[in-house]
Amino acid sequence: MEKNVLQAISGVAIYPIISIAIFFLFFLGLAVYVLVVNRHHVKTMSQLPLNDDQNSDDQILKYHLNHDVIC
Amino acid sequence: MQAEPLAPASAPRPPLISSAAEQRVETFYYDNRIVRDFGIATVIWGIIGMLVGVLAAFQLARPELNMSTAYTTFGRIRPLHTNAVIFAFVGNGIFTGVYYSLQRLCKTRIYSDMLSKLHFWGWQLIIVSAVATLPLGFTTSKEYAELEWPIDIAITLVWVVFGWNMFGTIAKRRERHLYVGIWFYIATFLTVAVLHIVNSMEIPVGWLKSYSAYAGVQDALVQWWYGHNAVAFFLTTPYLGLMYYFLPKAAGRPVYSYRLSIIHFWSLIFIYIWAGPHHLLYTALPDWAQSLGVAFSVMLIAPSWGGMINGLLTLRGAWDKVREEPVLKFMVVAVTAYGMATFEGPMLSLKNVNAIAHFTDWIVAHVHVGALGWNGFLTFAMLYWLWPRLYRTELYSKKLATTHFWLGTLGILFYAIPMYWAGFTQGLMWKQFNNEGMLQYPNFLETVLQLVPMYYMRGIGGLLYVSGVFLLLYNLYKTAQAGSLLVNEKAQAPALMPAELVEAHQGGHWHRWLERRPFQLAVGATVAILIGGAVEMIPTFLVKSNVPTIASVKPYRPLELQGRDLYIREGCSNCHTQMVRPFRSETERYGEYSKAGEYVYDRPFLWGSKRTGPDLQRVGQKYPNSWHYNHMLDPTSMSPGSIMPPYPWLFEQDIDYRILPSKIKVLRNLGTPYPAGFDQVAVDDARQQARGIVAELKKEDIEVLSDKEIVALIAYLQRLGTDIKVKPEQATAAAQ
Prior knowledge:
The structure holds two protein chains of two kinds.
Chain A: H1 14-36, H2 39-47, H3 59-67
Chain B: E1 25-31, H1 33-61, H2 74-106, H3 113-133, H4 149-171, H5 180-199, E2 202-206, E3 209-212, H6 216-251, H7 258-272, H8 287-299, H9 301-313, H10 319-324, H11 326-348, H12 351-357, H13 361-391, H14 398-431, H15 444-449, H16 452-482, E4 488-494, H17 499-506, H18 510-515, H19 518-542, H20 558-569, H21 584-590, H22 625-633, H23 635-638, H24 660-670, H25 678-699, H26 709-719
Antiparallel strand pairs in B: 1-4, 2-3
Helix pairs in contact in B: 1-2, 1-3, 1-16, 2-3, 2-6, 2-13, 3-4, 4-5, 5-6, 5-7, 5-19, 6-13, 6-19, 7-9, 7-19, 9-11, 11-13, 11-14, 13-14, 13-16, 14-16, 20-26, 22-26, 24-25, 25-26
């Protein structure tokens, strides 16, 4: 590791500036998105874990699905 | 799944599918067996890991419990405990939850049953290798990365299998959109891979021994970048993913704010990476890196609490359910503990707070609030929810589960409160000066003995907690007995609509665009996590002024190197630190504060995290050889009342010189300035130094053979911290 040692990284100040710019712009964009995103879409997404149950309208089928044992 | 009506378009388009009935409905089966298997592994290893923890806890109160064997000393079993509860208990818990939820969120069976089996048995094999190697002293000493290099390779392979199975499942999905839980799983997979590979860079010197590719300050930074992000991406993000699935399921309502989950996901994974240096405050790590760590650690409150708020507020209006359901009780405490720990963590990252807390039991308390509260309780909640569904029957006893809940909660309290007390007590005692301006408690042991009653109580807390887990084991066993495992759970879902049809009318909002493209999401997440690591580590590695060299600091002599490896083998860094902080209370007690340049040849670094015993950075030449001889043979002979166990095997076992030449060669290749060909004469050099020590011991009326391990350890201890007292032949290379 010692072999690779530089005295200093010249013009290093640009890197933290780029970093903070990326950070700021990214989260600004994210904030904007979150405010304008379609309501219906958000509702659909939040329901995803609750939609695991089979989307069949057939009650009999539903019963069978919940009581099926297949090995 | 109702699609939105198509707007009139000039170009002809294929007719839009307007109702679910017209879409082709596919039948498939979820794999429940793999979930059940991982669940069983979670419970078994949880009990084992916690019992080892209870043993370790009581060893600090009653040193006899070290049981006079090398395999059962605190220094050797503490890493066994941490590895077992993190990788075996939480690890299997993660896989249990991921395999269940991922299949259902993707509406498809897990990609490959073969990969599932490989993953499962591969992971258990890794745990067994940990159990086999750690008590035998095969360890790297780097926390939560103690497993030696062959096991590191195995971990990489098994992790790839897991990722393959996970991404394969995502690719086969029938639900186009990726629920937030899946992003957490993806981020976990990618980041753990990066962390493991980078921190495990080590050069083997033997079948079960290696040296870190990094040295000193750099090793410390890489280790704690890894260590903190192991907390973030193994203990937090996968469990947040599980929370986002199992909490809505258990509560029967969707998460409070999906928008919040988007913000909190991205900010969490970006910010967490930078927090690593908060483990290294007031050490020889460069100041700028410390400050970055502090700033980002404080910022971390926001995304973490985003998760907590989302979890708790999902239950708004359903608190009456919490009274009835043990699953929800566990979840509420889990999420609350998460919130507490993620507030405490940033507080501990403030330098003034850290000055008191670092190296004390306060940190241990903090860890266990998170581990017992968040990880433990969420795991229990998930298992109590899962088992009845896997076995198609009611939970055997809700009452027993509720009893478990109360036992566990009491356990957490009996653990955390005594440890807070112990932490404050010891931290403040170390800093106390009397009216004459001298240390009030110059004898370190005095600060330890104050804590013993707290250690007893903490052990009882652990016992309470693990007794609850026995109840869980019984409850799940009886549930399984009463029911029958639904090995393959039938499910139906429409085939995935062609992407062109969906995109055409849903528009191109970029985040939804991203949600439909898991691979691009993966790339985005990887970039986010790499930025923090790169910014902190690259300058530390490359810029000379960050690690100033000290001309008088020389490499370890071969015998001292052997001694250092014994220090690592016995797990001494679990109780002793080697980092004197720049406080007057420390310089009075230990000597000159530690400089970065003193550690340039330390592979791995041994700064330590906890002072159950005193700091050893300046122990060199402080006591005569005979003191060390007697102390290792029986610590109470030199320190009456000491809780350190004796190490009699060091006086019986011979120094193993076989891999010494290989060690010297590897260190030379890594940059340690041994002369060319030194590996050929290293053994002779070691023997010569050993004879010198034996001769000195003889003057103090102690007879010992020069090839016994104790001689090597004494050589190492007597070298520690002495280099800076040597007059340099020339001026220091770079002032700091």
